[in-house]
Design a protein that fits this description.
- By secondary structure, this protein is an alpha/beta fold.
- It folds into 2 domains: 148 residues, Rossmann fold (3-Layer(aba) Sandwich), CATH 3.40.50; 114 residues, Rossmann fold (3-Layer(aba) Sandwich), CATH 3.40.50.
- The protein has 11 helices and 10 strands.
- The protein has a 6-stranded parallel sheet, sandwiched between helices.
- Helix 4 crosses helix 6 and helix 8 crosses helix 9.
- The protein is globular and about 50 Å long.
- The chain binds D-glutamic acid (DGL).
């Protein structure tokens, strides 16, 4: 079991921010990534649809005998928090690890959360933050346009469209004097440079995908599930839309060339 791959999934490309960190922390582990690029975005959909899609995504990973499932998607992790409970392998979402990192980082108790509409409506981050720091103030902002901009490759810090949208979304964060900002959607770390340029250097940005990778290593170690291989692990990517765009933008997410097979699959044929 311990030499089986780690399964990571997201509605699209965003979960690669977790893969990037997993590969830094545990380079010898194999990874299977599933990005539902044919049905992204999830964050503008209703809870039942998100739940149905997430269950299909996880079944795909389980068919590949993964030893752990990571929901590297804020939308799924916040709207379907219990979805991993019945899995035969450990399951991790991104809400708790990111909330814990934010609670540890804040000095003024004023925390911001950026996410999809579904994530913000679920109030999952707020709920966890208030459990950890009962007196804290939480400012949430839904940023659905960010997902489309990122999936479309509008990620350059100098992109005027991205800057305009980011300024609008970040206004409440500045007004409420947040000192810690959770990027509660795994698509957002790739546009961290523009967020940082607007928020200023004094604000701590929490990369929720990366935080989940840090938690994953703890869970695998605690359960004796770290691979005993000493050689570099492999990564295989599965998507539900064309592979070309995925490999190109995926490289930006990983911060290096995306190597490993990218395979397009048809959900209806599974
Ligand atoms: N990466 C997903 C998340 O973390 C979201 C994008 C979407 O499908 O709307 O919420």
């Amino acid at each position: 079991m311990k030499n089986q791959p780690i399964g990571v999934f997201d509605s699209g490309l965003g979960g690669l921010t977790a893969v990037k960190e997993l590969q830094i922390l545990m380079p010898e582990e194999d990874i299977i990534y599933f990005g539902d690029t044919g049905r992204v975005p999830y964050g503008t959909r209703g809870r039942d649809t998100i739940r149905k899609y997430a269950a299909q995504d996880m079944n795909f990973l389980l068919r590949h005998d993964v030893k752990m499932v990571i929901s590297a998607c804020g939308t799924i992790s916040s709207t379907c928090a219990d979805i991993g409970a019945a899995l035969p392998v450990p399951f991790l979402g991104i809400v708790e690890p990111a909330a814990e990192a934010a609670a540890a980082a804040t000095a003024n108790g004023r925390i911001g959360v950026l996410g999809t509409s579904a994530t913000v409506n679920s109030k999952a981050f707020e709920h966890h933050l208030k459990k950890l720091l009962p007196g804290c103030s939480v400012t949430q902002q839904a940023c659905p346009l960010f997902v489309n901009l990122v999936e479309g490759g509008f990620v350059a810090k100098t992109d005027p469209v991205l800057q305009l949208v980011a300024r609008r979304y970040l206004e409440p964060m500045i007004e409420n004097d947040v000192d810690t900002l959770i990027l509660g959607c795994t698509h957002f770390p790739i546009i961290a440079p523009v967020i940082r340029s607007i928020m200023g250097p004094g604000v701590t940005l929490i990369n929720s995908g990366a935080e989940s990778a840090h938690r994953a290593i703890q869970v695998l170690e605690a359960q004796g599930l770290r691979t005993d291989r000493k050689t570099a692990g492999t990564a295989s990517y599965f998507v539900t839309d064309e592979v070309q765009g995925f490999a190109r933008i995926g490289s930006q997410f990983l911060g290096r060339e995306l190597t490993g097979n990218v395979t397009k699959i048809d959900m209806d044929s599974l």
